[in-house]
């Protein structure tokens, strides 16, 4: 009989394979895995047998989440990461972006993505061209003249809600030997599956709509089995894995993703319409509004399912101080730096999501001092608009 000290370490730790099947995939937090013999372990290490050896190389809870997400995006495979930014970094590397290569990137894109390409990759010897992704001629000229390794854009952009014509962009990228990388965080697979529209890799900040409850930070890259193999081999070296606990939570969030976003996107459409009617709002950016420059493109790409859950708007004549008064006066809608949660959230792009973008680039893009980004949650629309109305009145007092 082993001594108590030994039992404390080993007792109850390893159950034999159970005869029953849990309805929900269990949380498996083991870092390492052992087999009945070393030959099997060696075969798993070599990739000749299925299994797990070490959590940075793979984990059953993370695999279950990856398989669920791949199914939703119509992808052969998914690789999960510790954040959306880790996923973007991995997708660019896996697309051959390294010293001497170039990237054509949408100017209207999440601020940290902009800085990753314009600053960090630039320091590593990657050149970049930023273009208005809604102008196919400009994109065509940029890819033809730079022959980039990758074209990077968001299906629906952060924060100005521009819509990317993915089939056209895929043709332009492929005609010039580039891969099209699409960040589908705002649109989600509810609105469209970029891989089916010609994209080569899809990236998600799972932190947002897919997990959906504001309690998980995660990312994912989706593509072919071959691309997933490259991503996994790189992940073994870079180590930005998604841990089992957030993977389990993200998978739980994913089960209600469809109904959450259906409701949130419908709420956002109503809130955008309500904002567009107001005199104290100078401009509303929302692809569901008939006046949006890519409204008909969005209707075609998203096939009538909706236009997303984020609405950006400008307070008429407002400077930063007045926007802050508006945000301070909100009681239901939370001024917090994220989106896609069940809660309605507002953010001031100039000082948070796009803080890393130089002020002159922000100004040229239309990210003005009066711009607010609203992520519409699952509350009753009447409660959301009542809160916005009272905060606007307070800011204008
Ligand atoms: C469109 C988009 N992509 C990527 C990211 C980065 O994701 P994460 O915060 O999970 O690293 C964000 C974050 O806000 C985002 O809005």
Question: Helix coverage percent of residues?
Answer: 40-55%
User: Number of helix segments?
Assistant: 15
**Which stretches are poorly predicted, pLDDT < 50 over at least 5 residues?**
none
Helix/strand order: HHHEHEHEHEHEHEEHHHEHEHEEHEH
Molecules bound to protein: pyridoxal-5'-phosphate
Mean pLDDT over the residues:
96
Main beta sheet, described?
7 strands, mixed
Indicate the overall shape.
globular
For the secondary structure, the number of strands is 12
Beta-strand proportion: 5-15%
Gap from first CA to last CA: 79 Å
Radius of gyration: 23 Å
Class from secondary-structure proportions: alpha/beta
In spatial order, strands of the major sheet run 1-7-6-5-4-2-3
Descriptive report:
β5, α8 (188-191) and β6 (201-205) form a beta-alpha-beta unit. The protein is an alpha/beta fold. Strands 1-7-6-5-4-2-3 form a seven-stranded mixed sheet, sandwiched between helices. The chain has helices at residues 4-10, 38-45, 60-73, 84-94, 111-123, 136-146, 166-175, 188-191, 225-238, 244-255, 257-276, 295-301, 320-329, 359-365, 381-396, and strands at 77-81, 102-106, 127-131, 150-154, 179-183, 201-205, 219-223, 281-285, 310-315, 334-335, 345-347, 371-375. The model has no long low-confidence stretch (mean pLDDT 96). The chain is globular, with a radius of gyration of 23 Å. 48% of the residues are buried. The longest helix has 20 residues, at 257-276. Pyridoxal-5'-phosphate binds at residues 83-85, 110, 113, 154, 158, 183, 185-186, 205, 207, 217, 219, 353.
